[in-house]
Design brief:
Blueprint lengths: L9 E8 L7 H15 L8 E3 L14 H4 L1 E2 L2 H14 L2 E11 L2 E9 L5 E6 L9 H4 L8 E4 L2 E5 L8 H9 L4 E5 L7 H15 L2 E5 L2 E4 L2 E4 L3 E3 L5 E4 L5 E8 L2 H8 L19
Helix pairs in contact: 1-3
Length: 278
């Protein structure tokens, strides 16, 4: 057992599948706060709440993006971090359009039950088909952290299509992978398939919180899901605003990894990722 982490039996996680308004950060902040408070009114209170990708601006306003963005995450820390402390809940605060200096990043932040920001992640793979790379700056680091003693990692949306990234996190030791997303409805089958595949091949829980609704000409597909290491769907939202909640039995991980020791049986000396195109 890793020294910084303790044994965790079960973790109740709730994905807040949010319908946000494009380019209206103040309205979106207020709505996110309302969703967080409503989720904590449930009889079985979650241990972790999860928000989608770029919920402050939507994905993504090309006019005045920097002006609409957070300033180095200050508003998220002040408002969402304060809620985590008040409600004594861990919050994987999705990601926000986030200005640092003259550049804008797609930045995720994680808060513990005391409201401390314990992890930050700048999206590393920007979605070129929609021009994300023309407006945002990519990050250059991985994101691993502990929540209530469980080893967790975080990626954002398009990152899910890059198995090298997820396997790199998995090899650090991971129990739960969080995937805030803005995944369009037309490719929702890809999302469902990739979430299950990443859970099975890395023998971990994968928690995907997608957005819903329409931004510009894009309809986002919902289907937020919590999938266990066997590929079983524990919770699944529809296409409209909803909460997808489930208890992740982290004690099952050891048995699965012992019975099918995928990571132990790897032969990394044979694996090479090489460019083959001219």
């Amino acid at each position: 057992m890793r020294p910084a982490e303790k044994e965790v039996k079960g973790m109740r996680i709730a994905c807040l599948q949010m319908d946000m308004k494009l380019g209206s950060p103040e309205e979106n902040f207020a709505h996110a706060q309302d969703l967080i408070r409503a989720a904590m009114q449930k009889a079985e209170k979650p241990d972790v709440l999860v928000l989608p990708e770029t919920w402050n601006t939507g994905f993504f306003p090309k006019e005045n993006l920097r002006g609409l963005s957070c300033n180095d995450g200050d508003a998220v820390k002040a408002r969402i971090g304060a809620l985590a402390r008040e409600l004594q809940v861990n919050i994987v605060a999705g990601s926000v359009s986030n200005a640092r200096g003259e550049r804008v990043f797609n930045t995720a932040m994680v808060f513990d039950r005391q409201g401390a920001c314990i992890a930050r992640y700048d999206k590393t793979h920007l979605f070129t088909p929609m021009g994300e790379h023309d407006y945002y700056t990519p990050g250059n680091s991985l994101c691993r952290f502990a929540l209530d003693g469980a080893a967790c990692g975080l990626i954002l949306c398009y990152d899910l299509r890059f198995p090298e990234l997820i396997r790199s996190l998995s090899l650090m030791g991971l129990d739960v992978l969080f995937v805030p997303a803005q995944w369009p409805k037309q490719r929702i089958f890809h999302l469902r398939t990739l979430v299950a595949a990443r859970a099975i091949e890395n023998q971990m829980f994968v928690v995907c919180c997608n957005s819903c609704g329409t931004a510009g000409e894009t309809v986002f597909g919902g289907n937020s899901a919590i999938v266990d290491p066997l590929g079983e769907t524990l919770a699944l939202a529809g296409e409209s605003e909803a909460v997808a909640s489930a208890v992740c039995d982290l004690q099952m991980l050891a048995g699965i990894r012992d019975s099918i020791p995928v990571l132990r049986d790897r032969r990394p000396e044979l694996y090479r990722v090489a460019e083959t195109r001219g």
